[in-house]
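## retry 2 of 3
previous attempt timed out at serialization; input unchanged, resubmitting
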Amino acid sequence: MNAVNQSVVNRLRQVHQLGQSIWLDDIRRSWLRDGHLARLIAEDALAGVTSNPAIFAKSISEGAEYNEAIASLAKAGRSINDIYETLALEDVQAAADLFRQTYDASSGTDGFVSLEVSPHLADDTAGTVAEGLRLWQAFNRPNAMIKVPGTEAGLPAITELIAAGININVTLLFSVERYRAVVDAYLAGLEQRVAAGQPIDKIASVASFFLSRIDTLVDAKLDTLTTYEAKARRGRAAIASARLAYQYFKQWTSSDRWRALAEKGVKPQRLLWASTSSKDPAYKDTVYVEALIAPDTVNTLPPATVDAFRDHGDAAVRIEDELADAKETVQVLRNLGIDLKVVSEQLEREGVKKFKEPFDALFVTLAKRAGR
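## retry succeeded, writing output
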């Protein structure tokens, strides 16, 4: 990531002023130690960090700064899983401490750092709940978020973990339909907690809606067709889906069900735009930022996209631009034989796999470094 300089920092700060929080979709131990992350917070108004198994796999596998800790933990007889969790927890705790001032200043709206449950638990409700509770206790920071995939098995786990008072980042969402189910799971968890006489005013949650992966798959399907209509819809499925999801956000946060909970001090579960790096060189590298700036949302950006938006991004609220076209896009795609529900189901399966593979590879690397 390029060094921050004052001449271009305003573009990221403008997004913050428009009501959207920018989080960083990456974490590296070196950034925690050399002041880089602290500078992003101070100069760019960076307001949080998300991590996932693939990010930690890359960071730990490529980072020599972990070698001493790995050797020490291995010598102490710790298991490979314990070594991984110790390293990951050290990083997210250090990041959360850097963001604590942001958390306090925003009254618990921002300043969160996310740690994900094992991707091998994506279809295991009880296992997800148990690991979510354990990681939350180990993380031991008020501005922690535990990431839980929004799979069928993840939905009841979300409810149970929210009811337990845990901040949840729901990940791997690819459709408005599944987002609706996630909102219901979130609200049900809050209602269970209220029924048990427990406070809800400190609970925070985001629903992470993945973008570029939708376009990558849909565009590949469109490219097999030869009609003008098919070509005209390239690169439009993800933004259309996100804009419709935001309309649902506005709908449920205006409902009587939500108002009854909001009166008790809880904040709404915000939509978080994820997978925001443009995968197709034909698309502008800031396309998934500029199109989806909106109040009460989060956009988590990889380092390259942070740099790109800081350099040449255009900050303006466009979330409700072309809403009629968004609805039309969904229908046109269906007419072309592309059902976004089917697309989302495929992407969910692939997303879990894309987290499992680097996660497992990391454990192999850790075993080698630990001399096992």
